[in-house]
Automatic annotation (TrEMBL), chains A, B:
<dbReference type="InterPro" id="IPR000878">
    <property type="entry name" value="4pyrrol_Mease"/>
</dbReference>
<comment type="function">
    <text>S-adenosyl-L-methionine-dependent methyltransferase that catalyzes four methylations of the modified target histidine residue in translation elongation factor 2 (EF-2), to form an intermediate called diphthine methyl ester. The four successive methylation reactions represent the second step of diphthamide biosynthesis.</text>
</comment>
<feature type="binding site">
    <location>
        <position position="225"/>
    </location>
    <ligand>
        <name>S-adenosyl-L-methionine</name>
    </ligand>
</feature>
<keyword id="KW-0949">S-adenosyl-L-methionine</keyword>
<keyword id="KW-0808">Transferase</keyword>
<dbReference type="InterPro" id="IPR014777">
    <property type="entry name" value="4pyrrole_Mease_sub1"/>
</dbReference>
<dbReference type="GO" id="GO:0141133">
    <property type="term" value="F:diphthine methyl ester synthase activity"/>
</dbReference>
<comment type="similarity">
    <text>Belongs to the diphthine synthase family.</text>
</comment>
<dbReference type="InterPro" id="IPR035996">
    <property type="entry name" value="4pyrrol_Methylase_sf"/>
</dbReference>
<feature type="binding site">
    <location>
        <position position="84"/>
    </location>
    <ligand>
        <name>S-adenosyl-L-methionine</name>
    </ligand>
</feature>
<dbReference type="GO" id="GO:0032259">
    <property type="term" value="P:methylation"/>
</dbReference>
<feature type="binding site">
    <location>
        <begin position="112"/>
        <end position="113"/>
    </location>
    <ligand>
        <name>S-adenosyl-L-methionine</name>
    </ligand>
</feature>
<comment type="pathway">
    <text>Protein modification; peptidyl-diphthamide biosynthesis.</text>
</comment>
<feature type="binding site">
    <location>
        <position position="250"/>
    </location>
    <ligand>
        <name>S-adenosyl-L-methionine</name>
    </ligand>
</feature>
<dbReference type="InterPro" id="IPR004551">
    <property type="entry name" value="Dphthn_synthase"/>
</dbReference>
<feature type="domain" description="Tetrapyrrole methylase">
    <location>
        <begin position="1"/>
        <end position="240"/>
    </location>
</feature>
<feature type="binding site">
    <location>
        <position position="163"/>
    </location>
    <ligand>
        <name>S-adenosyl-L-methionine</name>
    </ligand>
</feature>
Length: 289, 289
């Protein structure tokens, strides 16, 4: 049996009781290490689970899947994923490979940012399509996520923005020389995401293109959701561009239509005492009682 | 401290290790009992947690919140919710009451249907607004959820449909006579939801109103997600109207634009061997490679 086990979002103890029991009994345990991270590292997990973990990076999952599946038809293998196992496409790929090889699989679910984000007080029901915001490079500055946010806002929906994670990236020089030397991991902050969004808003405005987003649009920054030191900050897009929410992981929400109860919840984490004080007046397009 | 603890979706062991530790140390433990259910009852949870649970129905949470909060400023109280604590509005209400009473709160997240639904192979990123389908009565037959599904489909998005739960309902007669006699709980099945949707599709068609949904639209029925006996069934809306997925809880997805990898995953749970065989030909509007 191949077990896909979600680890949740905080630390080693966010695994479920069922998940932990399975980890302890499997013959091999892999840790997926490229779509998300916990606030604790591999060593802390190994110590708590009492098991050696095999780090599975993107290359391994995509190119050496057979290695992961080996023997899973006669013994139990666990594949651990931060959050829930079904956030990222490649795990569907691993499921299909397992099924094609005649290996049974089972999923042990857990919280992921896709549902835990509800802790900020915005209703999960009212989220539209989720978008990803990636680090811009000199030559690649995608803006299409903004059009998705606009579509969501036009329908009154909130948008969860997942922020880029760069793990095991090579510099162009190392890549071209075939040197397996990797850059330090990078995690996009709420402030970086907000700045990028502001830049696009300004560019589009100059071109006469209305994105239905402005400097005053209410957004929510979230850092380390589910961990002890979680931070939630609600404020205008401009305010979030200058906030510091600390270490990774960060995510951001661009709000749509706000229900009064949602406003009351967001006030609990307002960036400044008056950030959401007069929401009714300053941003009435997104708020009706 | 008031702890909101998600129980996940299957049975007693789907609580997180952190959640279980907190349950064991709290002075009082409430179990929210109206937005969802596990495959095991209160007795099984009490035995496994080693704690007495106080059942908190909707009336109690809405009208006797002070009772729940009593003493939570000086001792620890736990409020257990099936799934994740932030699916339902009323828990925001309880958070706000706690904060206003000067009581700190903390959330222990877990899987909920809102993210665990990804196990069927559809990408969570590609879901639009979530809708609820309620039991129709002789006098109340809401159709507005269909318009939301249409909006999602117009954008290529999938729609998660949460199906009605009737717990502690009174008959009209008992309600009018003030008798606290309750009807047995009812849980809408995928088949009932699909039939209701088919009826609306037919009605609208007769009125010349295009819902962008037909008898052949690919839908996914899910039962007891996260439990050992979970069932996933992918097929046309017509096929799902006649399927029997067993005991509660059920949910349904109306698909939008399908990515090839999503189609491959859905084929693993096709209602009939040929349900999704020629998806490319029969439902090309929702599928491009």
């Amino acid at each position: 049996m191949l077990y896909f086990i979600g680890l949740g979002l905080g630390d080693a103890k966010d695994i479920t009781v069922k998940g932990l029991e399975i980890v302890k009994q499997c013959s091999r345990v892999y840790l997926e290490a490229y779509t998300s991270i916990l606030t604790v590292g591999k060593d802390a997990l190994e110590e708590y689970y009492g098991r050696e973990l095999i780090l599975a990076d993107r290359d391994m999952v995509e190119q050496e899947a057979d290695e992961i599946l080996k023997g899973a038809d006669v013994s139990d293998v666990a594949f651990l994923v931060v959050g829930d196992p079904f956030g990222a496409t490649t795990h569907s790929d691993l499921v299909l490979r397992a099924v094609n090889a005649g290996i049974q699989y089972r999923v042990i679910h857990n919280a992921s940012i896709m549902n835990a984000v509800g802790c900020c007080g915005l209703q999960l029901y009212n989220f539209g399509e989720t978008v990803s915001i990636v680090f811009w490079t000199d030559t690649w500055r995608p803006e299409s996520f903004c059009d998705k946010i606009k579509k969501n806002r036009d329908l009154g929906m909130h948008t969860l923005c997942l922020l880029d994670i760069k793990v095991k990236e090579q510099s162009m020089e190392n890549l071209m020389r075939g040197r397996k030397i990797y850059e330090p991991p990078r995690f996009m902050t709420v402030s970086q995401a907000a700045e990028q969004l502001l830049e696009i808003v300004q560019n589009r405005r100059e071109r006469g293109d209305d994105l239905a987003i402005s400097e005053e649009t209410i957004c929510v920054g979230l850092a380390r959701v589910g961990a002890e030191d979680q931070v939630i900050r609600a404020g205008t897009l401009r305010q979030l561009a200058s906030c510091d929410l600390g270490g990774p992981l960060h995510s951001m929400i661009v709000t749509g239509h706000l229900h009064p109860l949602e406003v009351d919840m967001l006030r609990l984490s307002a960036a400044t005492p008056d950030s959401l004080q007069d929401l009714r007046m300053t941003d009435s397009s997104t708020y009706t009682s």
